[in-house]
Amino acid sequence: MIENGQYGIYLENVVNGGIENSTVRNNGYSIRLYYSGNNTISNNVVENNSQYGICLYYSDNNIVENNVVENNSSNGIYLDSSRNNTISNNVVENNYYGIRLRYSDNNVISNNVVENNGGFSIYLSDSHNNTLETNIYDTSYGWWESGSRLKT
Predict the structure, then answer these.
(1) 60-99 pLDDT per residue, tens
(2) Measuring CA to CA, which residue among 21, 20, 15 is closest to residue 39?
(3) Please, are residues 81 and 105 in contact by the beta-carbon 8 Å criterion?
(4) CATH number, domain 2-150
(5) Lesser CB count within 10 Å: N end or C end of the chain?
(6) Domain residue spans of the chain
């Protein structure tokens, strides 16, 4: 278990790595990838962080799957300027935003349960050609698209 730091797990310029079967809680940022690609983040419990649960910044071709991401003050799963990632089979609950993409294109968001978040369940901002399929999310906040185009 990793807790009580600014970052729980921080990968910078890492290729072909993995973060698996960890519990990361009570940090500022729980799991953060920065300029990293072809990594897998799977089967983790990410909870009670004062900022983000799982963050990808300028990180492409990663897989984020089978994680429980809950009770984070800001975003559960957040992609900024990241492309060609797969976000699937996660449970994302009780965060501010559930899954949020900003300037992130060509990602697949599928088979996630995204409920009981304070803001939107799934929020896309200036993100294009993303695929959303078979996600379960709150209908009251649902998903929001600002300056974005979904792949059809």
Answers:
(1) 999 999 999 999 999 999 999 999 999 999 999 999 999 9
(2) 15
(3) no
(4) 2.160.20.10
(5) C
(6) 2-150
